Amino acid sequence: MRRKQPPTVPPNPEQLTAFIARQRELLQAERDSDIERTSLLFSKCSPKLLEQRGLALGGLGVASVQLGLGGKSLVELERPTAYHTSPIFPPHTFRPGDLARIEQHVASAAPRKPAKGGKKATGDAGEGGKAVEGVVYRVSDTKIVIAVDGDRGSQDGEDLDLPDRCRVLKLANTVTYDRMDKAIDALERLVLPTDPSSHPAVPRLVEILLGLYPPSAYVAAPDLQYLDPSLNPSQQKAVRAALEAPEISLIHGPPGTGKTHTLVEIIRQLVAKEKKVLVCGASNLAVDNLLERLIPHGIPVTRLGHPARVLQNLQSSTLDAQTAASDESQLAKDVKTDIETTMSALAGKGKARIRGSDRKKMWNEVKELRKEYRKREGGAVKAVMGRAKVVLSTCHGAGSRQLFNSDFDVVIIDEATQALEAVCWIPILKAKKLVLAGDPLQLPPTVLSLDSKSKPKKATANGKGTKDSETKAEPPGAPLEEVTLPESDDEELSNGSDDEDAGGKPAEDKAVEAEPVAPLDTKTEQKENKRICRLRAPHSLEVTLFDRVERMFPRVKKMLTIQYRMHDTICSFPSTTLYRSKLKSHESVATHLLKDLPAVSQEDEFSDIVTVPVVFFDTAGCEFFERSEADGLGGGLDEGSKSNENEAAVVQRWVQKLVQAGVSPGQIAVITPYQAQVTYLTSLLRADMPEIEIGTVDGMQGREKEAVVLSLVRSNDKREVGFLKEKRRLNVAMTRPRRHLCVVGDSETVAQGGPYLKSWMQWLEQNADVRYAGLDDP
Ligand SMILES: Nc1ncnc2c1ncn2[C@@H]1O[C@H](COP(=O)(O)OP(=O)(O)OP(=O)(O)O)[C@@H](O)[C@H]1O
After folding, report:
1. Fewer Cβ neighbours under 10 Å: the N or C end of the chain?
2. Per-residue pLDDT tens digits for 540-565
3. 590 Cα–ligand 1 center, Å
4. Is pLDDT above 90 for 47?
5. CB of 257 shorter than 6 A to ligand 1
6. Are 112 and 106 in contact (CB under 8 A)?
7. Would you kindly state where each structural domain of the chain is located, as residue ranges?
8. Does the Cβ of 585 fall within 6 Å of ligand 1?
9. Given this model, what pLDDT does residue 668 score?
10. pTM of this prediction?
11. How far does the centroid of ligand 1 lie from the alpha carbon of residue 255, in Å?
């Protein structure tokens, strides 16, 4: 059934101008904070401190230099025995995909000279070689591999002039900001053209996202056949909505509810209809996760992005690999061989040294051949891209030159609640229809400039904002969009966007076909018409596009309601308090415990460990006080990290018990909100258990483990809980385990952190197996 077109709402240039100006202002503040943070670290921290903060690895030697994909040199670095007693790296923050600089190791304790945070900031590494920059390709406990662009050295790496003793430093990346700025500029040109007489045709999707029109009614697909028979009713409903919506659809996927599973079905359906799809994720990991799940279905996919940022087992799907294997690239290879032969003759590897005018002539030949090579390689890339039906990249990667002038029928953004709005606009401007998936009740994107509580600057005619000295006034007609988390259960999901019965029952209902998506009633239509034309300038970058669209048009959101991860007891607190009790456990996980794992002991002596879904070691009254990291940095780099050694001892003993019971260290994660506690726990546990995962709560988002031990750290007389207070962080923390959650913390301190923490402490008292945290036990 087709709804009549909604009334045309005249675009409101003031609101648009204010919105765009505010986006720019926030992005600039974020870029400044990022660069400032990097240079502050570099200028204030001694090399030793940089290493302690995990931002540098020192005393490294080059183990090998090899030629990698895309002509990159892969520089492998390790800790030589001459400088270190152990080859294992200390805890650090380097991950594949990070920008890094290799430079000469400096032994002094003094801060190094300030370095530019930008990508291009290369420099002299002092005596013994040049500094080079690249992308972290692979990291293990003992080796780090950096991919350096081919033009930084010869292809065999011989003239990469690296120091004998190196240090690797992590760098800020400003390319992402440049691309986000460009996307906002393009959006502005589209909706606020400088010459109004040449008004470009604005895609309806863009108009909807800017609140100028409500989304059109669903176009029924009565013959829809689900390809995956395992989809539950709420997943089916989300798939149907995504296919029937003409412009926009949101999928709200609480932890473990099969967001990716659902997106895979949507992509398969779109491919069956011969649609061209751009699939994006907020992170490389999110993209690879989808790619891994699409490959078994035989869907022809092309993964964009630096090969260093793509998981090893997925390399064959990358554009680089597909281009190299294409027929078209054969032509380029011939030219490459010619270049190499000529170059080697010029280098004197032939019989006679070439001199004078012959030499000049040959260099000119090389120049021409290189031009030809680039042309042929470009042609091969174009041919591969032309054949691709499903392209995967990060949102930021969608701004790469391979996608210039490409259009797609649908763009899908996974983990959209972790992406800045501006980065989402990069792929959105290439598509007619958008599907956003995420969970606004888990952590939002990381924002460094959050402390800048400034109101938006007065927008100027060109929308670029004013100088600091000018009045900071709220722009006319553009109220601020606050980041608000529903305080009560009723506020969340109060929009009625999810049918009460949409997949609300566990597995037995699986066979029930989801109902078609309901047509709009007049009331909803009226409500939406009131909402439109209320485009709000965001208060902070934490307000995501998902948040904005959900608020403007709640009906386009479908919630997945059956989770396939947690024991029902673990699921019950987040379900009741955040998801209005809609989150149900699938029968396959509802009662699963550690004892059901094959290698776990069935002996009685372990039963109080492996048959309990939630354990709480309450340290109240034990005087296990936290310690503040005196890192001397100040300047708001972070909250000032905290650790708690006594709590860590409790964690260590519980982990040992789990392992004695037969749970393998690889099935366990130890998580905590504080980096200092991560460092301390790593020093306690890593040596005996290299496979155990130890990390911050933020780093575990999107991941799961059979058993999770959560160290809350905060214990003080002032009853301060810091950023533990953030519900979304707590939600991530308590929803990582599958079969067993062990919480270690001081209920007296934590319960003072507001109503949510208080209710969690009460819930733990009543539902967990509460244990004594004194040092003689557990
Ligand atoms: N309908 C289903 N039937 C059986 N298993 C399912 C179904 N949907 C999802 N799962 C399983 O549930 C687990 C979680 O699914 P998936 O990874 O798609 O969830 P997600 O929502 O993307 O996870 P996260 O919370 O980490 O973002 C996977 O092991 C998946 O195979």
Report:
1. N
2. 899 999 999 999 899 999 999 999 99
3. 14
4. no
5. yes
6. yes
7. 45-107+130-172, 301-347+356-388, 562-772
8. no
9. 96
10. 0.78
11. 9
Distance in angstroms (rounded) separating the CA atoms of residues 582 and 92: 39
Q: Which CATH number fits domain 562-772: 3.40.1830.10, 3.40.50.11900, 3.40.50.300, 3.40.140.10?
A: 3.40.50.300
pLDDT tens digits, one per residue of 336-382 = 777 777 777 776 666 666 777 777 787 888 778 877 877 777 778 88
Mean pLDDT of 50-75: 79
Q: Is 415 left (phi over 0), alpha (psi -120 to 50) or beta?
A: left
Please choose, from the candidates 93, 171, 77, the residue with its C-alpha nearest in 3D space to the C-alpha of residue 699.
93
pLDDT for 323 equals 83
Radius of gyration of the chain (CA): 28
Supply the pLDDT for residue 702: 81
- Cβ 168 vs Cβ 145: under 8 Å: no
Asked if residues 394 and 280 have their Cβ atoms less than 8 Å apart, the reply is yes
State which of 260, 283, 703, 705 you would mutate to test the pocket of ligand 1, scoring each by most atoms of that ligand within 8 A of its C-beta: 260
Mean pLDDT of the chain: 80
Q: Please name the residue whose Cα sits nearest to atom 23 of ligand 1.
A: 256
The Cα–Cα gap between 227 and 273 comes to 13
| Cα of 103 from ligand 1 centre, angstroms | 43
pLDDT at position 725 is 86
Q: How far apart are CA 744 and CA 748, in angstroms?
A: 12
pLDDT, one tens digit per residue, over 256-312 is: 999 999 999 999 999 999 999 999 998 888 898 899 999 999 888 999 987 666 777
Of 723, 660, 733, 738, the residue nearest 699 (C-alpha): 733
State both tokens at 682: 């790593």
The H or E element spanning position 183 is helix 175-191
Amino acid, res. 713:
V
For the CA of 703, the nearest atom of ligand 1: 26
Q: Which among 418, 508, 564 is the best mutation to test ligand 1's pocket, defined by most ligand atoms within 8 Å of the CB? A: 564
Topology annotation, domain 45-107+130-172: Elongation Factor Tu (Ef-tu); domain 3 (2.40.30)
The verdict on the CB of residue 256 being under 6 Å from ligand 1 is yes
CB 77 within 8 A of CB 146: yes
Is the CB of 591 inside a 6 Å radius of any atom of ligand 1? no
CA distance 373 to 381: 12
Secondary structure (DSSP) of 264-315: HHHHHHHHHTT--EEEEESSHHHHHHHHHHHGGGT--EEE-S-GGGS-GGGG
Rounded Cα gap, residues 242 and 731, in angstroms: 27
Ligand 1 nearest atom to the CA of residue 253, by list position: 21
**What is the token pair recorded at 719?**
């009853």
CA pair distance 175, 380, nearest whole angstrom: 25
Ligand 1 in reach of 165 Cβ (< 6 A): no
What ipTM does the predicted assembly reach?
0.97
CA distances from 5 to 2, 8, 199, 321 (A): 9, 8, 22, 46
Q: Is 667 in the pocket of ligand 1 (CB under 6 A)?
A: no
Q: How far apart are CA 581 and CA 673, in angstroms?
A: 26
Distance, CA 563 to ligand 1 centroid (Å)?
7
User: 451 CA to middle of ligand 1, Å?
Assistant: 36
End-to-end CA distance of the chain: 63
- Residue with CA at minimum distance from ligand 1 atom 29: 564
Alpha-carbon distance of 579 to 734, in angstroms, equals 14
Q: 356, 257, 273: which is closest to 582 by C-alpha? A: 257
The answer to whether 267 and 380 have CB atoms below 8 angstroms apart is no
Give the closest residue (by CA) to ligand 1 atom 3. Answer: 230
Characterize the bridge pairing of strands 668-672 and 642-643.
unpaired
